[in-house]
Amino acid sequence: MSPGDEHDSFGGVGGSGQTRTRLPEGNSGDVYGGARRPVRSSRSLITVVGVVVLLLAAIAFANRGGGTPTDPTGDSPRKGATAADPTAATGVRPVTGKNGAIPTGYAHDEQGAQSAASNYAVALGSAEMFTTSTRNEIVRTVYAPAVAAARQGDLDQVYSDKGFLSRIGLREDGTAPQGVSFISRVIPVGTRVDSYTDDRATVSVWYSSLFGMAGEGSKNPVSEAWYTNSYELQWVDGDWKVTDFRQKDGPVPVGSDQRASTAEEMSDAVGQFGGFTYAR
User: Fold this and answer.
1) What is the C-alpha separation between 138 and 143, in angstroms, rounded?
2) Average pLDDT over residues 225-253
3) Is residue 143 part of a domain?
4) Is residue 187 packed enough to be buried (19+ CB in 10 Å), middle (13-18) or exposed (0-12)?
5) Does 51 score more than 90 pLDDT?
6) Which of 43, 51, 155, 174 is least crowded, fewest Cβ atoms below 10 Å from its Cβ?
7) Positive or negative torsion for Cα 192, 85, 208, 120
8) pTM above 0.85, yes or no
9) What is the predicted pLDDT for the residue at 48?
10) 207 is in which domain, residue-wise?
11) CATH at 28
12) Would you say residue 256 lies in a domain?
């Protein structure tokens, strides 16, 4: 995927005119908007969108060994499935423990596979993937042992690339410059079991992604995107682990006409609101 193509995956948002954004009043020095401004040019919107797509494409590239994101298999529910399962508690304990900050110890059933895929999506899309020590921990926890060793080098190559980090706005060690907050979060909306056997499962996770820099002078304000990842899972040593995954855009909801928050509000929110353990 080249930088010039990224806006296409968002339906031409730069020039479509289909989504309006009301910018905040006052605080004209804020990168999220000061006094009411004209709609930004397609070029600036494409730049912001491109950063988000670049992050998710990097994850997919590393996972596929240099390939590009592809549509998940199983776009339709598996044969015999009816409506989506409810997300209310079912009485089965979804997760029994944690490895660091990542929940582990999932139930050996479809519910456990869905919980694992959701939490692993959060880990793989987190800001912690951009620093070496935490990235290594995530890879060891999320991937099956036989796959982790092969993926580690690819992921290190992607997330340590100086050009990539510079375009995002990070230092060479993956940390944010002083005065700004780096935000990278995956928020699962729902899951779907596309296939299931006793030791293998394919689970699709639909999620929104927040990505960017919050702070005075940020050139990459935090923006939102929507994706669906399809995770291949294997039951290994008493837990579900990732062996592969694919990614596609959307489904993308229509944008609302809410006022965009200031950089300070966004930075405060990320610092004050912690993430969830996602489980059925």
Assistant:
1) 8
2) 96
3) yes
4) middle
5) no
6) 43
7) negative
8) no
9) 44
10) 3-75+92-272
11) 3.10.450.50
12) yes
